[in-house]
Amino acid sequence: MAESGPADPATTAPFGTVFAERMALSRFADGAFSPPELVPVAALDLHPAAHALHYGSACFEGMKAHRGVDGKVRLFRVDRHVERMRVSARLLHLPVPGTDLLHDMIRDTVADARDLVPDPPGSLYIRPVLLGTEPNVGAAAAPSRTALLYILTSPVGDYFSGGIRPLKVAVETEHPRTTPQFGRVKSGANYVMALGITLAAKQELGVDQVLFAPGGDVQETGASNFLLLDDERVITRGLDDSFLHGVTRDSVLRLAGDLGYEVEERDLSVDELVGWAEHGEAALSGTAAILSGVGALVVDGREVTVGDGAVGPNTLRLRRALTDVQTAAAPDDHGWTEPV
Ligand SMILES: *Cc1c(COP(=O)(O)O)cnc(C)c1O
Fold first, then answer.
1. 285 near 246, Cβ under 8 Å?
2. pTM of this prediction?
């Protein structure tokens, strides 16, 4: 059940169901975004014919602010998320918010919610949203000329209930998660396309997630990127339009390089994955998932244990390296964090 306001302890509620009281909001009309305002998180004034509701002109972002070991609140790689949302908007033919506008709206919303940011391992999840709002059901083949941009925030604990535990993942070798040319757009339409397959796999196979690997070509899961790890190497698919270019993926690869791992960005087959499972580790990466270990795969109805079935040491090491930077427990050598 969704509630509004500073519920305590927010981090024990299901992920993403508790919201801050206010959000920055800007409207696009007559060719420009309005100066943003902080408004109550409440029902939107949206026409029933709004473009987003009929023709899918909607995208979002997902990022976090962390409370550091020094008590200060910092955004993590906000520039990357701002840039990715601009890419999503462009590919959906929505008005593209300016870099400074979007960055400032995120900062202002987080500053306003600063007191709600939980201590680690909790954090403040930040959800910018952009919707086409033109009331015109005749605009099926035209972009929306008006839009709404707002920044929801939600204090969160663990994304996967049960804390750090190995996940069970079904490998889907027939269907892609979404249409190939839209894989890198962060839009709800991509999620709903993957939903039927994910629900069926959860129900029939008791898995947590589905790894999409159409034709045996590994892409990603419904909401996370996918990596293989062992003591020497980290392997993941190279960037192309078929999947979402995760900021966590990029961060983990950079930290892995710093720590002396060999990083390989290249195509990955299900056959290689099954062979890898005999000795190596597999993990999902994402803002919400952080770096979550995979303990078992289901391939063609057969269960394959990954390594010894537990969350592997390299997965835990890299997860720790990432959260240490996010919480200022380790130096921020790459300039990824920004105090709010
Ligand atoms: C958001 C998302 C990810 C993870 O991206 P991060 O920037 O690491 O949070 C991965 N896959 C999909 C489909 C996503 O929507």
1. yes
2. 0.95
